[in-house]
Amino acid sequence: MILLARHGETADNRERRFQGQGPVPLNALGREQAAELAQVVVAHDPPIASLFASPVPRAAETAGIVAAAIGLEPVFDPRFAETDTGDWTGLMMDDVAREDPEGWAAYHRGVIRVALCHRDGPYPASLERFHDITVPNGSLVTL
């Protein structure tokens, strides 16, 4: 079984701002969400055997909180890093959607959402659901 967790909230998440791979830390709510996620993971049956995470600061901070609760050391792997959002980094999502509708429509952000589209197949038709999927900060998803 593979479980995917989304990092806790950041100030940029709250503002709906592209953060890309930037050094954006968790905010106070994000740290609370990570602690709640840790308790969900502690109670998971079967127990978690390994913990892999993105080295991006918000994900690394979330993984550290979970790891401390379950007694594992996270393995940081850049292949789990958020998409590099390039020129959009720091911009508001609503502004990008309005000013670059073609780019916005083609933008498949969210590793967890892509994984859920593939899980729920058949691919590629399942990608049509992509923008309809919501994965809240600090949530745990089973593949």
CATH superfamily: Phosphoglycerate mutase-like
- Sheet-strand content, in percent, reads 5-15%
* Class by SSE composition: mainly alpha
The sequence of SSEs as H and E is: EHHEHEHHHE
Number of strands: 4
Mean pLDDT: 93
Distance between the termini: 7 Å
Strand order of the largest sheet: 1-4
Radius of gyration: 15 Å
Helix fraction?
25-40%
User: CATH topology, what is it called?
Assistant: Rossmann fold
Our count of domains comes out at 1
Indicate the CATH architecture.
3-Layer(aba) Sandwich
- The number of helices is 6
Protein described:
It contains 6 helices and 4 strands. It is globular. The mean pLDDT is 93. The termini are close together. The longest helix is centred in the N-terminal third of the chain and has 15 residues, at 28-42. With 143 residues, the chain is mostly helical. The strands form 2 sheets. The protein has a two-stranded antiparallel sheet. Strands 2-3 form a two-stranded parallel ribbon. It is 40% helix and 7% strand. Helix 2 packs parallel to helix 3.
Task: From the structure above, extract its key features.
143 residues; Rossmann fold; mainly alpha; two-stranded parallel ribbon; two-stranded antiparallel sheet
